[in-house]
């Protein structure tokens, strides 16, 4: 099976499994797990932050960070297609009790002027804006990268207005691989940031949220409220440490394969690409004359999986995908679209 639905489907390598099996462990909740503590030190150095917190996954990082930066009745700003708004079940509203305001912008980005206009001091009629959220890379914008200069301007505008800035850095290291800009240079412009180990880095569990000592202290309290107390979490942290040692540089390989996939799709007439030249490891596209279910079902019979995302399809390259897999997937798509190999020919118009 060639699984291109997401980079979250990666499986731990043999080397990572060995590291997990050999992990030194302790009680994480008490701060006594040595492997977790080593991971936190590594991430603090990587991101240039004072303190960090180990959490099971990235959505919990976002929810906790928003609650730590705000107070009930405040407002936050985020892009209209931010993962925080589109894919986290209104967790920020439930946990932090904040109002969200969506900003428009191309490829998941908005401008400093938009931030200045949207941020409010608050009154008896409207909530005070306390937090700006940015996403790097931006998932629903096709894995788009915020250029460092634009990110710095937006964050500076937020700080001018008295807002904190939080970065959803689920794929921050993909942005590093795409641009060559060190992670700490992106992170220097935000007050909190997290990185995920369960996507392109290939670990089975774990994300690390980082920021100031004060922010992480409050985040640890909120983690406990969320039921996030962990015990011998070094088993999971060992996989994350292995990923930092062995899987960061190879993220660039995923980007090459995404471009290979996009170039192949560009040659197919029914395909409309949203990301003709992917910044990172995602390719979004549409198919004229097909429903998602009809196309995906037929593709699955060829042992190939893609993911539907709204009105688009998404392919994500990752640790378990090779160049041969990409070529095989492209050939299967072409065969299905042209009706070759299975006695089926595409209708000239979609069925009603």
Automatic annotation (TrEMBL):
Gene3D superfamilies reported in the protein's UniProt record: Aspartate Aminotransferase, domain 1 (3.90.1150.10), Type I PLP-dependent aspartate aminotransferase-like (Major domain) (3.40.640.10)
Annotated protein name in UniProt: Threonine aldolase family protein
UniProt xrefs under SUPFAM superfamilies: PLP-dependent transferases (SSF53383)
Pfam families: Beta_elim_lyase
NCBIfam families attached to this UniProt entry: GntG_guanitoxin (NF041359)
Family per record: Belongs to the threonine aldolase family.
Origin superkingdom: Bacteria
Keywords: Pyridoxal phosphate
Organism: Nonomuraea typhae
Cofactor(s) named in the record: pyridoxal 5'-phosphate
Residues covered by the Aromatic amino acid beta-eliminating lyase/threonine aldolase domain: 3-286
């Amino acid at each position: 099976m060639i699984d291109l639905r997401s980079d979250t489907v990666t499986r731990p390598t043999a080397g990572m499994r060995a590291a997990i099996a050999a992990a030194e462990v302790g009680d994480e909740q008490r701060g006594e797990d040595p492997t977790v503590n080593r991971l936190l030190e590594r991430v603090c150095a990587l991101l240039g932050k004072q303190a960090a917190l180990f959490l099971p996954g990235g959505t919990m990082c976002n929810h906790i960070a928003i609650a730590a930066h705000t107070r009930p009745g405040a407002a936050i700003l985020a892009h209209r297609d931010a993962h925080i708004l589109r894919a986290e079940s209104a967790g920020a509203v439930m946990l932090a009790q904040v109002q969200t305001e969506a900003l428009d912008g191309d490829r998941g980005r908005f401008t400093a002027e938009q931030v200045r206009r949207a941020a409010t001091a608050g009154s008896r009629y409207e909530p005070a804006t306390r937090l700006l959220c940015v996403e790097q890379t931006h998932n629903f914008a096709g894995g788009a990268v915020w250029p460092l200069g634009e990110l710095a301007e937006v964050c500076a505008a937020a700080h001018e207005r008295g807002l904190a800035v939080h970065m959803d850095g689920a794929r921050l290291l993909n942005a590093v691989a795409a641009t060559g800009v060190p992670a700490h240079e992106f992170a220097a412009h935000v007050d909190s940031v997290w990185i995920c180990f369960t996507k392109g880095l290939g670990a089975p569990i774990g994300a690390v949220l980082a920021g100031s000592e004060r922010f992480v202290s409050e985040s640890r309290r909120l983690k406990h409220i969320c039921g996030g107390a962990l015990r011998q979490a070094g088993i999971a942290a060992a996989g994350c440490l292995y990923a930092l040692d062995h899987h960061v540089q190879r993220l660039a390989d995923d980007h090459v394969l995404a471009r290979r996939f996009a170039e192949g799709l560009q040659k197919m007439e029914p395909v409309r690409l949203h990301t003709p030249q992917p910044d990172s490891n995602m390719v979004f596209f549409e198919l004229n004359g097909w429903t998602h279910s009809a196309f995906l079902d037929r593709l699955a019979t060829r042992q190939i999986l893609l993911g539907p995302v709204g009105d688009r399809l998404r392919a994500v390259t990752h640790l378990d995908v090779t160049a041969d897999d990409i070529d095989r997937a492209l050939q299967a798509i072409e065969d299905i679209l042209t009706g070759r190999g299975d006695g089926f020919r595409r209708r000239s118009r979609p069925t009603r």
